[in-house]
Design goal:
about 375 residues; Arc Repressor Mutant, subunit A; nine-stranded mixed beta sheet; three-stranded antiparallel beta sheet
Amino acid sequence: MMSGIYIHIPFCKQACHYCNFHFSTSLKYKERMFQNILEEIDFRQHYLSKKNISSIYFGGGTPSLLSPEEIQQILNKINTLFQVDRNAEITLEANPDDLNQNYLEAIKKAGINRLSIGVQSFYDDDLSYMNRAHNAAEAKNCITFALNAGFRDLSIDLIYGTPSLTDEKWIAQLEKVCEMPITHLSCYCLTVEPGTALDHFVKKGKSRPVDEQQAARQFELLTNMSEAKGWVHYEISNFARPDHFARHNSSYWKGEAYLGIGPSAHSYNQKSRQWNIAHNAKYMQAIESGKPSFELEELTLKDRYNEYVLTSLRTIWGCDLKEIQQLGDTFERWFLETVQVFIAQNHIMEKEGIYTLNRSGKLLADFITAELFYGE
């Protein structure tokens, strides 16, 4: 069984208006946090029970705020304590404004072999609306720099549904992306998360709420173009060239074990789930005291059923009835009874015991999975 390791770097230069991930815009304690992350890797070295590590993922926050030397030290620590596959996928999330030629060459030498670049848009008005730290020129140039540095496994993120993004601009942006030598594309609908700056602006009438019809149209345009251009729509928000699925994120959707390092990071061993405290100062204090602070949840059969439906139904691999049968007759009966409504509505397809969402079903994925959750 393959496993993954996730490293959460909880720092950003500035706060994007839509983001609700855990981060700090103060870099005052960055060096101390880096040392604590190394210490936590030591503490957690037995969590994956000697499983082979097939992916390492630096997320955040903004991991590209790490120096190449810091990345090298983290990878050296992991390679010392874990069995890392020699062909492991090692991804760094990065912001375009951090990616100059020298930095890219240095992190590649340090061991990064895949980039996930937070482009979000190639239009300055969209980037300004989101309060991104980069501009459209940097978004485009960083991909050229990455190719020059020898990276061939490139993913970019885009956001649709923003008020300034017309359908025409979205189509033009997707056409531009399809011409680029990238291998992976993640596209997310703008979401107004509680407590974010965007949430405040919407409530105060300073920003328009998300137009659900616009978002649905732009998702439809996205799926149409990806299909026409030969991309594989392998998860609701993710598209890839053939044989370039994100190995790390796919492990989440397939229910494989993973270890999360850093404040707010989650870990999963297929029996329980745990998550570190989402507070930088308290995280560092806990690590330095030798007692990492986290919450632990032992997964019941109901939890395992609900999580399996939630993750599997989002993918092209679908929900396998055999997996549900292993959890017991109660869950099998519930699923078979509940899923019939969505099959009849042509939102879900079934073939040889595998249930997958069709195009209309993907638009309703959150609603459908909630309905399929086991209810007592």
